[in-house]
Design goal:
This protein is α/β, with parallel strands linked by helices. 24% of the residues lie in helices and 18% in strands. The chain contains four helices and seven strands, in the order βαβαββαββαβ. It has helices at 29-43, 60-73, 103-110, 158-165; strands at 11-15, 45-50, 76-78, 86-90, 135-139, 142-146, 172-176. The strands form two sheets. Strands 1-2-4-3 form a four-stranded parallel β-sheet. The protein has a three-stranded mixed β-sheet with strand order 5-6-7, covered by helices on one side. Helix 4 links the parallel strand 6 and strand 7 (172-176). Helix 2 (60-73) runs parallel beside helix 3 (103-110). The radius of gyration is 16 Å and the shape is globular.
């Protein structure tokens, strides 16, 4: 990726679906380690975006804790946390919304350092707060929109997206969520 406003190039990586195919241990540590090792050692990324399905979702709290510790051991840190490592910004996938009495509370507890600038309600004032799930940030002449597709339904807050994009000039925009905007098979 090259941002014309800067004299040098910079990179970010996008990956996801790092869950295991069974409830134990809930993550695919081998895949995470291989992907992150390549990113940390060979790609010189400024940050990473994780498109969801961090874990299998059978027991969210320990699975999310294991995900975070595996990412940390591989050289990454959750955005907003102190310490060394390349920051990563996740959004929830469908498997990150099951396996707990209150999956939203579990996410908020484990990923509380993510940007907290998301919509407080769904479009029209109804629905649940997406703060901590849907968020945006800017860096290196890029605005990143991270959209949770499960808090209130598939991209349920176009008003918030429009507000984020209002007045954006001279920047690239990168929007991501778990489900692709354009499906291949359907």
């Amino acid at each position: 990726f090259y941002a014309a406003a800067y004299a040098e190039s910079w990179n970010f990586a996008v990956f996801g679906d790092t869950r295991s195919s069974s409830a134990s241990p809930g993550i695919n540590a081998d895949a995470i380690n291989a992907i992150v090792s390549d990113i940390v050692n060979n790609r010189a990324c400024d940050f990473l975006l994780h498109v969801g399905d961090l874990t299998y979702g059978s027991d969210l709290d320990p699975e999310q804790q294991l995900f975070k510790s595996t990412m940390s051991a591989a050289g990454l840190k959750l955005a907003g946390e102190s310490g060394s490592g390349i920051p990563y910004y996740p959004v929830r996938g469908n498997h990150d919304t099951t396996g707990a009495a209150d999956p939203s509370a579990t996410w908020r507890s484990n990923f509380s350092t993510l940007p907290q600038n998301g919509p407080t309600t769904a479009s029209g004032g109804g629905g649940n707060s997406e703060v901590g799930f849907t968020y945006s940030f800017t860096t290196n002449n890029v605005m990143v929109l991270a959209m949770d597709q499960y808090a209130n339904g598939y991209i349920s807050n176009p008003d918030w997206v429009s507000e984020q994009l209002a007045g954006v000039t001279g920047m690239q925009v990168f929007a991501f969520g778990h489900a692709p905007a354009y499906q291949v098979k359907h």
